[in-house]
Amino acid sequence: MVSKEDIMYIADIAKLNISTDELDSAIEKFTQLLKFVDKIKEVDTENVEPTYQVNDDTYILKDYEGNATLTREEVLQNTKEQKYGYFKIMKVVE
Amino acid sequence: MDITSLKAWEMKEKILNKEISSRELLEAHIKKIEEVEPEINAFITLNKEEALKEAERIDEKIKNNEELGLLAGLPIGIKDNIATKNLRTTCASKILENFIPPYNATVIEKIKANDGIVIGKTNLDEFAMGGSTETSYFGPTKNPINKNMVPGGSSGGSAAAVGANEVPLALGTDTGGSVRQPASFCGVVGLKPTYGMISRYGVIPMANTLDQVGVFGRDVKDALLMLNAVTGYDMKDSTSSKKSDLPISIDLNERINYLEGMTVAIPKEYIELGPSNKEVQAQFDNALKVFENSGAKIEIVSLPHLEYALETYYIIMSCEVSSNMSRYDGIRFGHRAEEYNTLDELYKNTRTEGFGEEVKRRIMVGTYALSKGLAEESYKKALKVRTLIKQDFDRVFANHDIILSLASPILPYEFNSVINDPIEMYKADLYTVPVNLAGLCSMSVPMGTVDGLPVGLQIIGDRFKDANVIKAGLGYERAVL
Amino acid sequence: MAYKTIIGLEIHVELATKHKIFCNCPNEYGAEANTLVCPICLGLPGALPVLDKEALEYGIKAGIAFNGSISNIIKMDRKNYFYPDLTKGYQISQAEIPFCDGGYIEIELEEGTKKITLNRIHIEEDTGKQLHSEDGMTLIDFNRAGVPLIEIVTNPDINSAEEAKLFLDKLRAILKYIGVSNVKMEEGSLRCDVNINVVNTKSNVKSNITEIKNLNSFKAVVKAIEFEEKRHIELLEAGSNTDRETRRWDETKGETIIMRKKFGVSDYRFAEDGDIPPIKIAGEWIEEIRKSLPELPHAKKERFIKEYNLSDYDAGVLTQSKELSIFFEDTLKYIDDSKLVSNWIMGDVLRRLNDDEIEIEESNLKPKDLAELLILIRDGKINNNTGKKVLKEMFDTGKSPETIVKEKGLIQISDEGALKEIIEKVLSENEQSIIDYKNGKDRALGFLVGQIMKASRGKANPQLVNKMLLEIINER
Ligand SMILES: [Mg+2]
Ligand SMILES: [Zn+2]
């Protein structure tokens, strides 16, 4: 059973606000996920390796010269607030 | 004659023969866009001025008899989850409403190097999460075949733009069918190549082990043209494969019958599932006859783990989504909430305001599935089932060139209809999703209409056997035309 | 009552590679804010990481030097959490399989050698830096984001502040030897967190583990451990216990201060980073790296004892720093007298370096110059005391000993004719002392030698003066 507390905990670590009217639909989604988890439990995966990647020929280590470092203007062009070349947020209570 | 209704390769021939300039071609498309866009809404952002400059640059090259790249001045639509330098890239989300990337995705660099022209950024479901383009923050796109219907999704903008003659070619992305299904809905060709064929550098991820860039064109030859322009190994993408460096060269001689001797597999699980619409089934049966009559050998096969594909996909996709969406915190780019007193409020208000409902749902589910108590039986288990699904396909492709199925068992539907029936939506995904789980290549090719609405044939090929899929598509197209 | 202290360390070491770990931004310290940043290390949507070969190589070097076993598969995981200095909402790190498993470092205690075993070493990316201004702003610089780190996690084998200090000294020395890090705590290229608790050896009652962060010098590590040891014991003695919490060291107050309580276990939702497929590491590559490693301090110490006939202590000091050991051996290329060179380095040279708080490589002294100086002394061209003065001048000016000796006219008088003249002159002025000496007052001889040295302005060869003085007096 998915509880309201489960939802609030997950919302907290996912950094989302959940309003009370969204709780029910969230519980429904979580319950559906648990059903999916139950469904795949049927499959015998003894001695089966997980597939993180479909291709196994990739062997890439970065080893080249040159870089694509941005200008400071480009670095800061999409932020809402900046100061002295730094990203800025208002001081927050920890 | 309306030049915008030609195939991309026909336009290219006219440019190379100097029958038309790149600028004239571009202007014809801009005119078309201005005409249909108010209704279709395939684009989020247009790039007219830059595009005109590019067209002039290409015309200059033509004037100087310089050799042109593969895309020779063709206008191209780019799904708006692909980063374009100095051109707004939104993922159809409020959280990136004003995001201007300071860099280009590798595919954009390749388009430029091949003398293609980025004409604008096309609409999608927010962060590519959806199958109808209705979850876009910038409003839905309409299906050019019937404007009461959705264009499919998530690459609905790209499919509709090609279908409505706004562009001859477009790029989309496909995580669980997001190129093939809208192609099917809009009556165009949509190709999702093998995972690792096209660089994902600069492609804003939804679920990064499933995402792959795909191409749209009006016929298979167009799709091949576009694919060859953007494929290739990229050292900036660790998941890019060196096998993708092989150019896909296919002899396009009109007299070749590609279907002769081709081995075709039909999974019995799809036969059993069947579409609820009998006429859709009839279209598929007709297509099979075409293959058979052209000399292909058809066999029924089994994909025993197909019945777990949706659950497996849903778990892996959600987990990857939840992590990929974490960088949207309002600090370095994107929307930031006005009101906050604590760091937690900064994050939570920003993300709650910036993301749409579907995105938030998937983040929640993925966070839950990856959380301490559940990760082992959800995420880890799903990755193992994924192995079995992949092995099912490997067994089939050991003896067969391609697998055929429907691209979508359902027809384009009206706005706000099926989105409330997620079960039907998930069932539809069963045709496309397994391909991404196994990293295979696959293409949707138009195979006629039912009630005036297009139906797509899905041709699936083994990893890095994209040429087989293209040959099958070319062969089918020639046989029915 | 007897208490045993149990300490485990977690050390983050920045690798001194040319580039950052997942992008090709320069890996440099001290640049202007946000000028060493690209779409990848800034975590812009769509940008992808590629693991840097040199970073992995440096990590493997450290793993081998610390006697760990290197994994043949490199898997990168995402550690999901939100923090303003973290660009992607996750840190790319290693959870399931660290690149290096186990290992140990030996420290020398009075009662003998002690092995501090390592749990693991993993590789990960560093985060940006936050500044908090007085007027209520938080400013963030991402130049450090993506700098390669290795995290070395020890087992709880350390039992005192002293052992922790010795361990860190050794760790730092080895990292410097193999050249993978600048290991400067003040620049943050070496950062250490301490996990500590105490156990009553009679009752077996344990205090709860405290984590101490923000330690920016070895001194702070020692002081914080000593402070916590006392705090833990006092609480247990009072029938109470410590809380599971994270504390930081406050240098001005000289005490640790609570940062946060630990509630349960953190939920980092570790998952494989799908952007970086597992990388198979060829055994040959690891072998190649192993062969490229320089001689490590312990092996070098053993060799110094055997090859140069040094004491255990002297060999230990000379090999503590790679640069010092190289300086020693380089000096021996010009003068074949390991005892003499060792004595001078252990004495005047190290004293001077300590006074100036610098390392040998930062000083003006060159091996060839030191050797020349010692040759001048050995050949009797200058005496020991003059040699010390010349060495000081060498440190101050960087001039060669020949130049200094010539400029100041310090060459020792060993010419018997010249010496005889001086001795006769001094004796004629001090007849009484000769009489005293002959009457058995040995002190008088010392006085005379002093007068002779003075008359020669310190340049007379003392051995020769002694010998000749006796001869001349006895002839009278
Ligand atoms: Mg760490
Ligand atoms: Zn960078």
Shape of chain C: elongated
Query: N- to C-terminal separation of chain B?
Result: 21 Å
Question: What's the story with the biggest beta sheet of chain B?
Answer: 11 strands, mixed
Q: Provide the gyration radius of chain B in Å.
A: 21 Å
Number of separate helices of chain B: 16
Q: What is the residue-averaged pLDDT of chain B? A: 96
Contiguous uncertain segments of 5+ residues of chain C: none
Which structural class is indicated by helix and strand composition of chain B?
Answer: alpha/beta
Low-confidence stretches of chain B are none
What's the SSE blueprint?
The complex is a heterotrimer of chains A (94), B (481) and C (476).
Chain A: H1 4-13, H2 20-41, H3 72-76, E1 82-83, E2 86-90
Antiparallel strand pairs in A: 1-2
Chain B: H1 8-16, H2 22-40, E1 43-46, H3 48-63, E2 75-79, H4 106-113, E3 117-122, H5 156-163, E4 169-174, H6 180-186, E5 189-192, E6 212-217, H7 220-230, E7 263-267, H8 268-273, H9 278-293, E8 297-301, H10 309-324, H11 343-354, H12 357-370, H13 376-397, E9 402-406, H14 422-429, H15 433-437, E10 441-450, E11 453-461, H16 466-480
Parallel strand pairs in B: 2-3, 2-4, 7-8, 7-9
Antiparallel strand pairs in B: 1-3, 4-6, 5-6, 5-10, 9-11, 10-11
Helix pairs in contact in B: 2-3, 5-6, 10-12, 10-13
Chain C: E1 3-14, H1 53-65, E2 69-70, E3 73-74, E4 77-80, E5 90-93, E6 100-101, E7 104-109, E8 112-125, E9 129-132, E10 137-141, E11 148-154, H2 161-178, E12 190-200, E13 210-215, H3 218-237, E14 245-250, E15 255-261, E16 271-272, E17 279-280, H4 283-292, H5 297-308, H6 312-320, H7 322-332, H8 338-356, H9 367-378, H10 384-397, H11 401-408, H12 416-429, H13 431-438, H14 443-455, H15 462-475
Parallel strand pairs in C: 13-14
Antiparallel strand pairs in C: 1-11, 1-12, 2-6, 3-17, 4-5, 4-16, 6-8, 7-8, 8-11, 9-10, 12-13, 14-15
